[in-house]
Specification:
Helix content: 25-40%
Number of strands: 15
Strand content: 15-25%
CATH class of the largest domain: Alpha Beta
CATH topology of the largest domain: Rossmann fold
Number of helices: 8
Length: 265
C-alpha cells in the first residue's frame, strides 16, 4: 500500500518550515500532493499525532515521515484515545484543545488504563501552572506553540531513546530480556525465546507492573496483520511455561478480558 503525504495547494513546500505558528492561517487547501513510491518507506518509530488543526497536523506529519517516522493522525480526542488504547506506538504527540475530549483528559484516561506510552503535549497554554497540570495528568514532555519542528523531533528522539531497551540485560531484576540474543534471564538461567515470545515479553517488561492490553500485545507481536486473539493466548501460554512454570513464583499474570502484566513480588 502506498503512503500519501499531505500539503496545501499554492504553497512552496510550507511543510519544511522551521517552526509552526497556529495563529497564522495556511494558504490554499489541504490536499494529496503525492504518493511515495513502493519500497521507499522504511518503518521507524511509530507516532500517534492527535491534533485538530489540519495545517499543523500536515506539517508535523510530513516533517516526521521524511525523517523515517511512521505517523498516524486523529483529529479529535475521542478518536485519539481509542487509537492510543490499541497500542503499538512509540510516542503520542497530543494537542490539548481538542474537540470531543480534551487532551488533558485523554492523557489521564490513558494513564488510568495502564498505558505507559510517552506523551508529548503541544499547547498554547504557556504558564507554569499549565505545564505542571500537564505533567500531573501524565505527560512526559510539554511544548508550547509556536515551536520548531527540529526541536519536536529531538524531543521525540529523547523519549524514544529512554523507552527503547538496550541489548544488555538489566542487572538485578528477577526477569530480564536480551533482544540481541532473544534470550530471557531469570534467577541465573538463560531461556531462549522465539521472536514472537521475545516481542511480547519485551513489551510486558517495559510496562511492568502496568497491564498491557490485548490489542497492544497483538500489534507488538504481529504488527498490522490480522491475527485472532486466540493466537496471542497460545503464545502467552507458551511464554509462561518457559519463564514461570519452572520457578516457584509466577511473574506473568493474565487480567481477564483486558490483557497481561508482569508483577514482581
Amino acid at each position: 500500500m502506498q503512503r500519501l503525504r499531505l500539503g496545501r495547494v499554492g504553497d512552496a513546500q510550507p511543510w519544511l518550515s522551521g517552526s509552526l505558528n497556529p495563529g497564522r492561517p495556511a494558504r490554499g487547501t489541504l490536499c494529496i500532493l503525492e504518493a511515495s513510491p513502493p519500497g521507499m518507506h522504511r518503518p521507524g518509530p511509530r507516532v500517534l499525532l492527535v491534533e485538530d488543526q489540519h495545517d499543523i497536523a500536515a506539517n508535523i506529519w510530513d516533517f516526521l515521515e521524511r525523517r523515517g517516522y511512521e505517523v498516524d493522525h486523529c483529529a479529535d480526542g475521542a478518536s485519539g484515545l481509542q487509537r492510543a488504547r490499541e497500542g503499538g506506538f512509540d510516542a503520542v504527540v497530543l494537542d490539548l484543545g481538542l474537540p470531543r475530549l480534551d487532551g488533558l483528559d485523554l492523557c489521564r484516561l490513558l494513564r488510568d488504563a495502564g498505558h505507559g506510552v510517552p506523551v508529548l503535549m503541544l499547547t498554547a497554554r504557556d504558564t507554569l501552572d499549565d505545564k505542571l497540570l500537564g505533567f500531573a495528568h501524565g505527560a512526559d514532555d510539554y511544548m508550547v506553540k509556536p515551536f520548531a519542528l527540529r526541536e519536536l523531533e529531538a524531543r521525540l528522539r529523547a523519549l524514544h531513546r529512554r523507552r527503547t531497551p538496550t541489548d544488555t540485560p538489566p542487572r538485578g531484576g528477577p526477569l530480564a530480556y536480551d533482544a540481541g540474543t532473544m534470550t530471557a534471564h531469570r534467577e541465573g538461567r538463560s531461556i531462549p525465546l522465539t521472536r514472537l515470545q521475545g516481542r511480547l515479553l519485551d513489551v510486558l517488561l517495559a510496562e511492568a507492573p502496568r497491564v498491557v492490553a490485548h490489542e497492544r500485545l497483538l500489534r507488538a507481536a504481529w504488527g498490522n496483520d490480522a491475527v485472532d486473539i486466540a493466537a496471542l493466548h497460545t503464545q502467552m501460554y507458551e511464554l509462561r511455561a518457559l519463564v514461570d512454570k519452572p520457578f516457584d513464583c509466577p511473574l506473568i499474570h493474565s487480567v481477564r478480558r483486558v490483557g497481561y502484566r508482569v508483577v514482581v513480588p
